Amino acid sequence: MRIALASYRSKEHSGGQGVYVRNLSRELVALGHQVEVFSGQPYPRLDDGVRFTPVPSLDLYRADDPFRRPGLREFRSAVDVFEFATMCTAGFPEPRTFGMRLSRLLRDRVDDFDVLHDNQTLAPGLLALERRGLPLLTTIHHPISRDRRLELEAATGWSRVTKRRWYGFVQMQRRVAKHSTHILTVSKVSAQDIAADFEVPRERMRVVPVGVDVDRFRPRETPRVPGRIVSVISADVPLKGMSVLVDALRALPRDAWGELVVVGTPSETTEKRLAEAGLVDRVTFRSGLTDEELAELVASAAVQVIPSRYEGFSIPAVEAMACGTPVVATDVGALPDLLADGVGRLVPAGDAPALGAAVAEVLSSPETAARMGAAGRTRAVTTYSWREVARATADVYAEVIAASGHPVPAAPEATKRQESSR
Questions:
Q1: Which residues touch 326 (CB under 8 Å, ≥6 apart)?
Q2: At residue 230, what are phi and psi to the nearest 5 degrees?
């Protein structure tokens, strides 16, 4: 198949978008398919054999200069003006403007592809391409309405007004989802939430989980760092529960744990909370890690903690499982399914004492930790490898193409050989 894979931003380890695009595209190519990725900034890291076409925006939220003011020469279209104006009025324009740009870029290339796979953009421009005859499949990892709800609950005063404006794009995504014929999501819980929040009939959805690179994320021969806790966040927002984790560690005896390493950038709220708790010297934040560096860090941990208030899936959970690292997490979203049958330890969301007690119990019992880690590794290898995810996704592509009235391309030779060798 000739696959166009679109993602409005593809930063690695940022909400999982870059992880999803890179690994899925690589494994689809390995199965014999042709893949061309279209993305705005930050651009993805891709592997050999995957074509890439940038869809440049004004890059208003770059890490080293967020909410920047572009020079006049950078404005080249009405879309650029709209993008900047939306940012200046506290909105988040990237999904909508990416859809506009991609629609213009692909309107004369519709016949170049058998299917367009949209990763969480949910913009009207994607539906316009479908109307031109390009079969469309949209991945919704989880409805961003969940993020919106939790952030508004935590906001006060003027911040509540700006948060509401920022999340205005969610209404656009809801409208597009309701008009989307084919939706792919990553867990049964996400499917239920999409049906509830976006009013999408369940029969329009297919479930294929997110994968993990089980060769890179694996147990290491070097010993784990005693007492090391790792937590991976895409953004330090209320959804991720950092405040609960800080409160949990604050209440533990100092000798119950050694250090906390957080993959991400702290918010001002978290920095203040750490200072008040007297934990600044025991907590480190790291960002910009390569895949190998992240895998080594996760494999070095005595326990990985996921204190989230919601998770539609959880890439950090399956990465920890693949590394044989025991996981303590909240009982929300897809986490109970991921960590069932002894793979992880679950606690109620927002319950700092319960979270602290579970972390301390795992750290104090090497036998328990080893048992959890071994069970996690086994499940990651048998259920969540990216090759299996790519194969299942390709099956969904075939359904979408057939339902659109287009002929389904023959299975590539690489896939035929693998199926015959089973």
A1: 302, 303, 304, 320, 344, 345, 362, 368, 369, 372, 373, 376
A2: -120, 140
Does the pLDDT of residue 418 top 80, yes or no? no
Lowest-confidence region among 15-29, 55-69, 256-270, 316-330: 15-29
Do the first three CATH levels of 2-211+386-420 and 228-383 match, i.e. the same topology?
yes
Whether 207 shows a pLDDT value over 70: the answer reads: yes
Angle made by CA atoms 382, 388, 390, in degrees to the nearest 5 = 155
Q: Which CA distances in Å does 78 have to 67, 74, 83, 85, 100?
A: 19, 12, 9, 10, 11
Dump pLDDT digits (tens) for 76-107: 999 999 999 999 999 999 999 999 999 999 99
Strand partners, 183: 138, 205
Task: Name the DSSP letter for residue 170.
Answer: H
pLDDT tens by residue, 122-161: 999 999 999 999 999 999 998 999 889 888 988 889 999 9
The answer to whether 7 touches 119, Cβ cutoff 8 Å, is yes
- Measured CA to CA, the distance from residue 184 to residue 136 in angstroms comes to 11
| Band (402; pLDDT cuts 50, 70, 90) | very high
Please, where are the H alpha helices in 199-290?
Answer: 242-251, 268-277
Poorest-pLDDT segment among 8-17, 108-117, 215-224: 8-17
Class of domain 228-383: alpha beta
Residues facing 212 on adjacent strands: 385
H helices, E strands: number in the chain? 17, 13
Domain locations in the chain? 2-211+386-420, 228-383
Domain 2-211+386-420, CATH homologous superfamily name and number: Glycogen Phosphorylase B; (3.40.50.2000)
Rounded Cα distance, 285 and 305, in Å: 14
368: exposed, middle or buried (Cβ count in 10 Å: 0-12, 13-18, 19+):
middle
Chain segment 242-279, per-residue pLDDT in tens:
999 999 999 999 999 999 999 999 999 999 999 999 99
Question: Residue 394: which of 30, 134, 10, 6 has the closest Cα?
Answer: 30
Instruction: Measure the CA–CA gap between 134 and 243, rounded to whole angstroms.
Output: 45
| Residue 105: C-alpha distances to residues 53, 56, 83, 110, 125 (Å) | 10, 11, 17, 10, 11
Contact 318, 380 (CB under 8 A): yes
